[in-house]
Amino acid sequence: MGAGRRVTRPIWLLIAVVVFTAIAMTVVVFVQQPLRYPFAGAQGLLALAFWTALTLVASASPVKLPRGSAVSVSSTPILAVAFLGGPAAAAFVAAIGTIDAREARGEVPWYGTLYNHAVLVVSAVAAALLFEALGGARLWNEPIESLAAGLVAGVAYIVVDELLSGAATALREGRRFMSVLRTEFVAFGLALLGLVPLAWLMAFAYEPLGPMVALVFALPLYTTRAAYQSVVELRRMFTQTIRALASAIDARDPSTKRHSEHVSGIAVEIGQEMGVSEADLEILEWGGLFHDIGKIGISDAVLLKPGRLDREERIEMNRHPVKGAEILANADRLRQVVPLVRYHHEWYNGSGYPDRLIGEEIPLLARILAVADAFEAMTAVRPYQTRPKSLEQAIEELRRCAGTQFDPRVVDAFVRTRTAHGLGEIAADPTRDLRPSDPTIRLPQGTAPGTAR
Ligand SMILES: [Fe+2]
User: What is the DSSP secondary-structure string of 182-226?
Assistant: First the structure.
């Protein structure tokens, strides 16, 4: 659980239940089956210290993922301990060995730290108990059966971990549980699954090798972490490149400074409120940045004209979604962004452009982008709009146009976002009036309609 934005009662309840379960499980397993070989006695303390240190190293530098979560390879030594020493040792290492750099620096709130560790303890104890129940603890006598038990227990570990982490993410971000689960599992679950046999092998090799296992297994764990890191970095680099390109488009018209960036951020917020998948959030992010790329082909005389556009000029301006879609059509990686660019000026009632799609014919992500685009445009100073709308006026306008221009469900979701509450990045823009419920500010009505050009 990362830095939460608001801790609601269901979140406190979840934290309480999981932390209580973790403590209860730990007490019961310690009472019922004390630490056993190789963790029993004075020698065992050394072994416990070794595995805890190994887990600490694996947890030390988690790979930061977009939107606040992080992933590390610490599940491998935790599972190895579960296989090797049973539930009591697993509970200890999962609780103590997983303190990471973000927690040490105080970047995670205390209840988040508590919850994360409790989740790992519950997952580790569940996996260890299952491993024992399946007879996997006869590690060296029956390696094949033991490996099979290890795989089942490893899957249980990942499932419990994903369920509990997913529940917290869903509650914290107000997203649908199943959607969170699907994206989290695709993002980490599958990769973690590959580490389960490695964990079993680590436990198996501990008997002959002792602490030398750290040396033998450091390399595969390190390369796994490096692979995570490079995937994340590649995506970050790609998004940064897109961002640079988007700001180049916005720079042609000084009045639309940072427009694309803001639209991108708002679209992602709406997507999160609507529970779209992580992959779709990324498409929204890119779609927001690229939606007006077709304006590259619009002449300065039209693009920068301060007054209203005449018929010819309007026709030229309205070509930008199609031009944009054509520009992006050649980029394989951006294929899914093309419909967002093409359809961001379609209206819910079918009177938009370029294809006059109606209702659900317009892809959901394009309907989301349309609301984000309109809100950004309404609240910004433009040549054709010297008095931008206030937060309340803009929301009122979106509501008024729900069902005609916009999908009402998308407008409802927008109203729940941080931006609609006068928070977030766009609210910090000094040229806008996005403070909520400020009765002293009354701008005259009759500014441009709620449409971005
Ligand atoms: Fe546009």
Answer: HHHIIIIIHHHHHHHHHHHHHHHHHHHHGGGHHHHHHHHHHHHHH
Report how far ligand 1's centroid is from the alpha carbon of 321 (Å): 6
How close is the Cα of 422 to the center of ligand 1, in Å? 24
Separation CA 196–CA 219 (nearest Å): 16
First to last CA, the chain: 40
Q: What is the pLDDT of residue 2?
A: 44
**Domain 9-232 -> CATH class:** mainly alpha
pLDDT less than 50: residues of the chain = 1-4, 438-453
Residue 65 alpha carbon to ligand 1 centre in Å: 30
Architecture of domain 252-428: Orthogonal Bundle (1.10)
**What's the CA-to-centroid distance between 230 and ligand 1, angstroms?**
34
Would you kindly state where each structural domain of the chain is located, as residue ranges? Answer: 9-232, 252-428
Cα-to-centroid distance, 193 and ligand 1 (Å): 43
Q: Supply the pLDDT for residue 401.
A: 95
pTM of structure: 0.67
192 alpha carbon – ligand 1 mean position (Å): 41
